[in-house]
Amino acid sequence: MFRSRVRAAVLAFLVLLGGLTTTALTAAPASAAASCAGGVSVYGVLPDGRLTYTTIDPDTGNITHIVVSSKTLGFTAKALATLNFNTLLVTSTSGVLYRVDVVTNSSSLTFNDPIDVQHGWTHNLLSYDGHGHLYGTTSGGSLLQYLVSATKPGTNQIGQRREIGSGGFTLKTLAAAGDDRLIATASDGQLISYAVSQTGTTYTRAQLDDAGWQSFENLVSPGGGLYYGKNPDGAMYWYEDDDPADGSGTDIAYHLDDPVASRGWTQYLLSADPAGCTSATPVKPLRSKIATLATGEVGTTEASCDKYNDGCNYGANDWCAMFATWTWAAAGVADVPRSTWVARGLGKWGVDHGLFKYRSSSTHGSPKIGDWVIYGPPDGTTGGHVDVITAVHPDGTLTVVGGNVSNKVTRRVIDPDTARSGADNVLISGYVSPPGA
Fold first, then answer.
1. Residue 300 belongs to a domain with what CATH number?
2. Is the pLDDT at 3 greater than 50, yes or no?
3. Which of 93, 364, 422, 430 could tie 385 with a disulfide, CB 3.0–4.6 Å?
4. DSSP secondary structure string for all residues of 84-114
5. Which domain holds residue 81?
6. Does residue 95 fall inside a structural domain?
7. What average pLDDT does the structure give for the chain?
8. 3-state secondary structure (DSSP) of residue 225
9. What is the DSSP string of 176-204?
10. pLDDT in tens, 87-125
């Protein structure tokens, strides 16, 4: 479960007996490398069998439209895939694949009686990539691909079954993020991407994150590097992958303090319209460069750390600040305080330049990849420590890389609420953002 890491005044998304209500939340425009035609469209199935339709502003994460059907599906749904704006594929617990044609989703949500398309569909998860390919997983851990040859397919228009892989796809969630591109989570918290070849015979697996994603019950994507995850307490969070094709998670932006909704998403199945967004030309962000540089130094010992600043291997300096400033300078950050060799001095520099974000019980400081983590008050004195953030996980934990940890560059996962470090064993006071990032 997520810890409480959202503001008190967040978007309310309440499932009521007669429908859904929402209160808008103003947020600063985001910077996803995505191009979206209108809002992000998400369909859902409530426990009582009703359907929901929600649109989300891709730039702010705000809900802009909600409707709920008065009619139920008439069967217990097991898996859901959105083919297009008004066509759904839904499987039942008895293995029947139904097509659901939506009549309207504007002022109300209405749909025709589900059409029995095929039998034998016992898949745990389903997702459609918007380019003719329907993907599903089996209880045995296989990933299957089907060719969908019509916008509203009948009995003979879903076929050409291919087994992409067997045994290694015991996944918790699955979403199509583009043409033959999948995003998934595992029960151990991994975030994984899969790129399937055009022939459907091979695939490339990339681990985007190694922890923190286990809380999500549902993960959906409209494409364009936008991901939306719903956790068991009904909160919906959103993420932006600057380059969803690069096999790296270091360029994923998190919005833990600005969720789509902090509660109310009681749908047990969710699926996004896969044709909603496309990827723009990716730009390797500054924050990603910092994280990549920091991670590449893991294992470097004090004996070899002169590259971070002259004199760091003489034992007279606690060289964590030297390492932190080196990562920024090497990534191209201008005006880095390279002469500041005290960790808490970097915090003071951040305060003086308006770049310091205090970690408090209410805001948690919104840490981001590439930020410096400052242990101890940002007052320029000694006794603290500084790390570089290389990953921000959905459960609130951080992956950090720091110099002079056991006399070497070390990578570890921390809880920012309880983590302590430095000669004085102090808590985190806040974070310093790279200028211009």
1. 3.90.1720.10
2. no
3. 422
4. ETTEEEEEETTSEEEEEEEEE-SSS-EEPPP
5. 13-279
6. yes
7. 86
8. coil
9. EEETTEEEEE-TTS-EEEEEE-TTSS-EE
10. 999 999 999 999 999 999 999 999 999 999 999 999 999
